[in-house]
Amino acid sequence: MKLKDRVALITGGSSGIGRAAAVAMAREGANIALTARRAERCEEAVAEIEGLGGQALALPGDVANAEHVAGLVDAAVERWGRLDIVVPNAGINGVFAPIEDITPEEWDQTHNINVRGTFLTVKYAIPHLRAAGGGSIVVVSSVNGNRIFSNFGFTSYSCSKAAQVTFAKMAAVELAQWDIRINVVCPGATKTSIGENTFPRNIDKIRIPREFPQGMIPLQQRAASAEEVANTILFLASDEASYITGTEMYVDGALSLFQG
Ligand SMILES: NC(=O)c1ccc[n+]([C@@H]2O[C@H](COP(=O)([O-])OP(=O)(O)OC[C@H]3O[C@@H](n4cnc5c(N)ncnc54)[C@H](OP(=O)(O)O)[C@@H]3O)[C@@H](O)[C@H]2O)c1
């Protein structure tokens, strides 16, 4: 077991990539603290992990809320006495629209969840990672905003995903003195429930048509499974990645190289 008795905190751990990462880490022996806004899905994830013989706790709430995030970190440390791994993963696509049509409130919602949520999760975890003598943070960003800039309407989302990578690079330098590694996973198209938090509007007003000679994803011409992204998170969280920090890892079947 790669993560035996480690304590991992995963935001957005009730669904998609976060849930797959929670299950993958629990299978490797980690105790899991997770959050998401919908309580019943959090409980389903906890039940899945407990069904595998693992331990998990869920505290439903919003990652953009500082009190909630601080409370989640405290709950994990109170239950298991330490914190080793942090995965700021919770995110939404939000509104996909022409820049002139995005309202300031819509812009803020995407950034509050994707960027402020990442900041809060790392901020409140740091004292406990330091107390544990080090740790591993794996931020879930995207190909959008980092290698892909051609998805019309994705401006707010892409800026938030680029900000996560910059945040991780700043943090990698700052936190290295305490043996805290931080890396970024940049998935391409992945089969999850993110469509529920995706609101396209008026994109045809700005779209430039493109025709591809073949499928859009070079490697095996398919989307990733959430487990394939989770395996990369698991690798970065584990001691096998002991000298990797400040690095983003693309898990996209060369989609962004082809399409970017
Ligand atoms: N799927 C893809 O193709 C893809 C590609 C690149 C990157 N990503 C990134 O992968 C990450 C995970 O997304 P996913 O694809 O696995 O989507 P998902 O299935 O919708 O999972 C997103 C998770 O985040 C939670 N969440 C959303 N807003 C939240 C908030 N304000 N506070 C707390 N939890 C919140 C959701 O639960 P609630 O809605 O109940 O809060 C859910 O648990 C995101 O950061 C996304 O940008 C996804």
Strand content: 15-25%
Distance between the termini: 38 Å
CATH class: Alpha Beta
Q: What is the ordering of alpha helices and beta strands? A: EHEHEHEEHEHEEHEH
The total of beta strands comes to 9
Number of domains: 1
What's the architecture, going by CATH? 3-Layer(aba) Sandwich
The CATH topology is given as: Rossmann fold
CATH superfamily: NAD(P)-binding Rossmann-like Domain
Low-confidence stretches: none
Sheet with the most strands: spatial strand order:
3-2-1-4-6-7-9
Helicity level: 40-55%
Rg estimate, integer Å: 18 Å
What's the rounded overall pLDDT mean? 95
Instruction: Sum up the overall morphology in one term.
Output: globular
Number of helices: 7
Could you characterize the architecture of this molecule?
The chain has 260 residues and is of the alpha/beta class. It has one domain (7-259): Rossmann fold (3-Layer(aba) Sandwich). Helix content is 41%, strand content 15%. The chain contains 7 helices and 9 strands, in the order E-H-E-H-E-H-E-E-H-E-H-E-E-H-E-H. The protein has helices at residues 16-27, 39-51, 66-80, 104-131, 155-175, 226-237, 255-259; strands at residues 7-11, 31-35, 56-58, 85-87, 94-96, 135-140, 180-187, 198-200, 248-251. The strands form 2 sheets. Strands 3-2-1-4-6-7-9 form a 7-stranded parallel β-sheet, sandwiched between helices. Strand 1 (7-11), helix 1 and strand 2 form a beta-alpha-beta unit. Helix 1 packs across helix 6 and helix 4 (104-131) runs parallel beside helix 5 (155-175). The model has no long low-confidence stretch (mean pLDDT 95). Bound molecules: NADP nicotinamide-adenine-dinucleotide phosphate (NAP). The site of NADP nicotinamide-adenine-dinucleotide phosphate (NAP) has 30 residues, from helix 1.
